[in-house]
Amino acid sequence: MTQPHFTKLNLTDFDAQSALALVADLIGHKPELSDLCKRIADRSSGNPFFAEELINSLEESGELRGSSGNYELGTASSGEILPPTVHAAIGARIDRIGGEDKSLLQIAAVIGT
Length: 113
Hints:
The protein is mainly alpha-helical.
């Protein structure tokens, strides 16, 4: 931290309006997605990483389909399936990984960084 090429960045959470704007930009501005955008923004509490992980989780589970900025509700949509924490969102994604990839991830997690 004392090196001349080191720069410290303090990152703060987004306010509610900025979080909602980010989520809407990532999901899309279709009227049928407005309630979901609000729930994601609320659940993420202004943490942009958590908001993106929630969207990724919904896409991988089939709750959303499409691409960034142009999602629509998926056929598997069944209401409220938002993980409560970043840890839970990442855990759910790991649970959906299959076979050798999941085994490799579990071994690497035991080994450490």
